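Field reference: sequence -> structure
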Amino acid sequence: MRHTEIKRLLSANATCIASIILTTLIPSLFLKNFSVLGTHLIWLCICSASVGMVNIILYLILKPNSSMKRSSVAHKVTKFIRCCVYFFASCILFHGIIVLYGAPLIESVLETFLFAVLLSTFTTLHCLCLLGPNFQVWLRVFSKNGAMSIWDNNLQITTMCSMVGAWLGAFPIPLDWDRPWQVWPISCSLGATFGYVAGLLIAPLWIYWNRKQLTYKSR
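Structure field:
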């Protein structure tokens, strides 16, 4: 395994982490009384947009798992539309799952949907950038020994950490602590964000530690 590829992955993950940190700092320079807790919905929108744009830009620059085949403009447009449909469907699916897990059905609809958008940005958008709108490829990557590159391993780890972080973030909500971060969906979205950042940090370290054992099949 080439060390240069691991360095590219590490730089990409560091850029994503930096984008999340900046979403907590830069908006306060332009928006009065901005804070992650006090204006959480605004932060959710900014964080989702920032992470999404950074992922797309990094994909266009680094081109991980890129195919050597040339595609027509019509094919690229169709692929882009399918990606948009997949992402919107992911937001709706996450919204439904979150409601099934106990989120308010009618109240706080906007809060729940923005949380679903954040989860989709951390998971589905990453899949779309790396694997494209191909559900069968997604299933292959997330199956046992399905990774075909370090980028696939990175995708597996960050997705899992984001989901686990969101799940763990729900535990403090019903506790009678009366803390501002217990308001729905602050603890869950912060848990997903911390989980995503943890995944971005853990993935390159895990890949480097296991680099001699990792073998990949050709695509």
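Note: Residues 111 and 184 are 7 Å apart (CA to CA).
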